[in-house]
Amino acid sequence: MLTLTRKCDYALIALSHLSRFPDTVTSAREVSDQYKIPLPVLMNILKQLTREGIITSVRGARGGYRLAVDARELTLKSLILAIEGPVRLVRCADLTSVNGDGEKVEPCLRIDCCPVRGPVLQLHHKLDQFLAGVTLSDIVDPPIKLQTPEPGPAGRETNEPSVSG
Question: Which residue segments constitute the domains of the chain, with CATH numbers given?
Fold first, then answer.
């Protein structure tokens, strides 16, 4: 199953909150309480995002966190990379020998004879492009959806605007 990790999920929630209040310093406790994220886990995530330069930490009695980058520039790919390391749909998609935690990764033994490697690598590339094209702003402020035309007489759709009077 392909899914965001819980850490990425929590990071996305925290970043979406920070992006809604860009001029405000927000405490970890405020985010933790509002979204029911365990505070120790959130603190570790926020430290990681600070190290990666995605957010800034403000010290002091009224301290907390704020975005260090524009929400329109922060991609889902860069968020995942900051939290989990490179996206790897399959083992052979990452040709480096070290994972995001710095652990050695053994290469796949079937690279030379795998019948699906080419198509799966293409799929991986498309996923990578998609993640690089989705920004925090896209998630927090999705474009307004156009309303579907209202059904006309006898259930037929009409493109004419309805007028109430």
Answer: 6-140 (1.10.10.10)
DSSP β-bridge partners for residue 135: 75
Q: Decide if 114 contacts 92 (C-beta within 8 A).
A: yes
Q: Facing residues of 146 across strands?
A: none
List, for residues 60-78, the tens digit of each pLDDT value: 888 999 999 999 999 999 9
7-53 pLDDT tens trace = 999 999 999 999 998 889 999 999 999 999 999 999 999 999 999 99
For residue 68, give the nearest of 50, 43, 44 by alpha carbon: 50
Residue in 35, 45, 65, 54 with CA at minimum distance from that of residue 5: 45
| DSSP string across 38-92 | -HHHHHHHHHHHHHTTSEEEE-STT-EEEESS-TTT-BHHHHHHHHH-S--SSGG
Q: Sign of the CA dihedral 134, 135, 139, 144?
A: negative
